[in-house]
Design goal:
The protein is of the alpha+beta class and 175 residues long. Helix content is 30%, strand content 30%. Strands 1-2-3-4-5-6-7-8 form an eight-stranded antiparallel β-barrel. A hairpin with a 3-residue loop joins β2 and β3. The longest helix has 20 residues. The chain is globular.
Length: 175
């Protein structure tokens, strides 16, 4: 009898504590989270990296540089607070498809590498941390282009695609 009372008491404490602990899948109305480090590649837009927290999306792309935009998630859509851009979110494990109201589509891939390749996308472009970030970014960018069948080696080969000439110049100048 005493043993069954102890088991019942232990089970009750466990059950009550489980009811009070937050369920990570149900935070913010059962929505999945974009918080973390992401990347994407497309032939049209090149390679981009994203550092997303609960208020801002910070991204870096070799074409446009660094941007920091406030956002919110509402009804499974991402909305930038400073523009009219809205994208429907479709979660697929370690990736998320964004279908924008401007007819664009983008798939963000969560970084799987451990440790994550960068802690933050630095704000100050003249800093040592930014130069270090860019050097590593360029390596990841080249890897993604090469995965897509676009060879970027020593800059001696000519790219027939004009959108990559600037990237090749930057690679040569960084040596």
């Amino acid at each position: 009898m005493m043993r069954s009372t102890l088991y019942f008491l232990a089970f009750s404490i466990f059950a009550l504590s489980a009811c009070n602990s937050p369920n990570h899948k149900n935070i913010a109305g059962n929505k999945k989270s974009l918080i973390g480090k992401w990347h994407r590649f497309s032939i049209a837009n090149g390679y981009s990296e994203f550092d997303i927290d609960s208020q801002y999306i910070v991204f870096y792309n070799q074409k446009v540089g660094r941007f920091k935009l406030p956002y919110k998630i509402e009804n499974d859509s991402l909305k930038y607070l400073t523009s009219q851009y809205v994208a429907k979110l479709t979660y697929n494990g370690d990736s998320v498809l964004l279908e924008g109201n401007d007819s664009t589509k983008a798939t963000l891939q969560k970084f799987k590498e451990q440790p994550i390749p960068f802690k933050t996308i630095p704000e100050e472009k003249d800093s040592l941390s930014f130069k270090s970030y860019i050097a590593d970014f360029d390596k990841r960018l080249i890897r993604e282009f090469e995965k897509a069948g676009i060879k970027i080696s020593d800059g001696m080969e000519k790219s027939e695609r004009p959108e990559y000439k600037e990237l090749l110049k930057r690679k040569i100048n960084s040596k």
